[in-house]
Amino acid sequence: MVNEKAYALGSKRSAIRELFEYAKKRGAEIGAENVFDFSIGNPSIPAPARVHAEIERLMQEMPSVELHGYTSAQGDKSVRETIADNMLSRFGFAMDADLLYMTCGAAASLTITLNALTAEQGDEFLVFAPFFPEYRVFVEGAGAKLVVLPADENLQPDLEALKKALNPKVRGVIINSPNNPSGVVYTKEKLEGMAAILRAHSETYSTVYLISDEPYRELVYDESTAVTFPMNVYENTLICYSYSKALSLPGERIGYIAVSPKAADAKSVYAAVCGAGRMLGFVCAPALFQRVVAACDGLTGELSVYRKNRDLLYKGLTDCGFECIYPDGAFYLFMKTPEGDANAFCERAKKYELLLVSGESFGAPEYVRIAYCVATERIEKALPAFALLAKEYGLRG
Amino acid sequence: MVNEKAYALGSKRSAIRELFEYAKKRGAEIGAENVFDFSIGNPSIPAPARVHAEIERLMQEMPSVELHGYTSAQGDKSVRETIADNMLSRFGFAMDADLLYMTCGAAASLTITLNALTAEQGDEFLVFAPFFPEYRVFVEGAGAKLVVLPADENLQPDLEALKKALNPKVRGVIINSPNNPSGVVYTKEKLEGMAAILRAHSETYSTVYLISDEPYRELVYDESTAVTFPMNVYENTLICYSYSKALSLPGERIGYIAVSPKAADAKSVYAAVCGAGRMLGFVCAPALFQRVVAACDGLTGELSVYRKNRDLLYKGLTDCGFECIYPDGAFYLFMKTPEGDANAFCERAKKYELLLVSGESFGAPEYVRIAYCVATERIEKALPAFALLAKEYGLRG
């Protein structure tokens, strides 16, 4: 007699975790270097040197009881001030440090935000396919309902679908740009269109908040690709940020929630964020890393590795004849399967030791996700296997 | 339109937080050294030297992407194995590493456990007064009901009350020994009595789990005081542990949940723990500190400071004529108020710049909590103020 929902979530592995375990087993059989595992979104480049330098400095300069002591629940005040100042200098947005709440990473940012905004059981949150599947777990955990909307042909949000889906139960729209799993960066025009629709609805009915989940914000590879800072486009915005990907610190669980000072009822929303954090069991974000990320806010690891991987993989796969979405950011490439059934395609790919994630759980059952945060040699060695796979489908190969 | 419960929790300060803010304000007026703040349970001794030594070693020896990468959701396997091994050597208990789940600290250990065990809305968890007030937030956040039972005259659990309170809706009993706020350590006899009652009920009706919240386990000051390892006494036990107090790392958010391998449905309970963690937004416990605490498991800071503080304060207050519970452990002294109304007593104490926490929120409205995790000089300087306060009540002073 336990919580059934929790039991179900805890006893069945996610598709990605299944593949991860398969990779280990297969690696033991034929050698890890012969398994082309593209399943996990774990950063493959080291944290910037500044991270360890800051840890050293803090251990030397700050008394232990202060450095490792509780910060306020919202996070250390000077940490929040630094991040708010950076939002002004980096994005031209005047953030209020007292509307920033430091969290234990992206998942915490999302569960806290969703719990804070769910006023009644059955409230709705909208998301565009393809989307990170844990959103469903988080939304349902908050007692709300996830409604999945289609993307357009470029995997940008379908704004007509958004218009139709809005109703007084909708509390928020979750966006994720650069996107996991597609690598697509939402255009400024799309976000402006979205803002106009949400603004009109908010003014007439009830406020719809934009929840921008942006752990990949800094991971873009072309000069021409600009990630739009959503608070500059829509007033009712909450940013859920994590330093996991930009600083290659996914295990350290550190991020923040930012409530736009221009949002309707910003102070009430922030109070609800603080209360939801308390209810879910978050006391404060890890104290040492709060200070580390404040000093490293805006830095990244050596992104040229990801750029090289992306270019190599995109060229290799399109040369084989595969249809791919050009990945502007994040470290995922989304590839259309020639047979239209991603699960079947992934099974075939396994014959060539290629481990890809089916798009089914992302709400895109014709695609597969290929995580290219791996050693470049893995991609070089895998391309001939992709070519053989392509030939099976009558492509150039 | 936000989550009302979260809003209420986030917009009203706890009594302890109110005092903390008052202390800052008053300190600015008369000098911080003249404010005798005994409100906060923040460790006042540095972390053991081994903590920083381990951080240094890990930064030098482990590749960044591994050290700061995701661990499995349950926690790094070798970390869990080390902690399980230590349970055998320290407490003679054969723990299974695959029933250990690393968490972001005590609050996370509790919310995850309570969510995992709440099968239906309205399920009950029992606790004995006096108790840590956040238990109510955590239990209600899980959709369950907190039922408070009385203590006996020594502030040990009242077992007759326990017998009467048991019913088929009861999922668990929360204990906290050494206790916050009383400093009392539950005796082995009491725990054995409790186990017999819970065992009989579990065998006849449904399993009642013992949830042992033990962040103060290592903080005891007399050779004669033994903290009973609850898994040695009752099979259906979950330990919610945190390293915050023992290693003086409250800001780093690191602890664990241990499900006894002897518990009924241990594997299902563990699966529900994993699922509840996922639902609440916990991905893995902070990775660097997982490894640090594994290396430091069982160590403490220099406890002689707390022992000295306890002895000085207990003698000073009883010499004044105050009636105090002898604190075997933790770093709190629980004192009976001469007028029987802790709120009024705390207001009078403020006249002497003594900041004490009323027992009301702990379910003990005749007591005040005095946190002695402070510099020894603060106690020395405060004792004359306590003497004046005592005289107001016609005590020796």
Structural class by SSE content of chain A: alpha/beta
What proportion strand of chain A? 5-15%
Radius of gyration of chain A: 21 Å
The oligomeric state of the chains shown is homodimer
- Largest interface, C-beta within 8 A: A-B, 79 and 80 residues
Distance between the termini of chain A: 54 Å
The total count of strands of chain A amounts to 13
Q: What is the helix tally of chain A?
A: 14
Q: Ranges of chain A with pLDDT <50 over ≥5 residues?
A: none
Strand order of the largest sheet of chain A: 2-8-7-6-5-3-4
Main sheet: strands, sense, barrel of chain A: 7 strands, mixed
SSE layout:
The structure is a homodimer of 397-residue chains.
Chain A lengths: L3 H8 L3 H16 L5 E2 L11 H13 L2 H4 L9 H15 L8 E4 L2 H12 L6 E5 L5 H8 L3 E5 L9 H7 L4 E6 L12 H17 L4 E5 L23 E6 L12 E5 L6 H15 L6 H10 L7 H17 L3 E2 L6 E5 L5 H10 L2 E2 L1 E2 L8 E5 L4 H17 L5
Parallel strand pairs in A: 1-11, 3-4, 3-5, 5-6, 6-7
Antiparallel strand pairs in A: 2-8, 7-8, 9-10, 10-13, 12-13
Helix pairs in contact in A: 3-11, 5-11, 6-7, 6-10, 12-14
General description of the model:
Two copies of one chain form a homodimer. The first copy, chain A, is of the alpha/beta class. Chain A has 14 helices and 13 strands. In chain A, the strands form three sheets. In chain A, strands 2-8-7-6-5-3-4 form a seven-stranded mixed β-sheet, sandwiched between helices. In chain A, strands 9-10-13-12 form a four-stranded antiparallel β-sheet. In chain A, strands 1-11 form a two-stranded parallel sheet. In chain A, strand 3, helix 7 (134-141) and strand 4 form a beta-alpha-beta unit. In chain A, helix 6 (106-117) runs parallel beside helix 7 (134-141). The first copy, chain A, is globular, with a radius of gyration of 21 Å. The mean pLDDT of chain A is 96. The interface between A and B is large, with 79 and 80 residues.
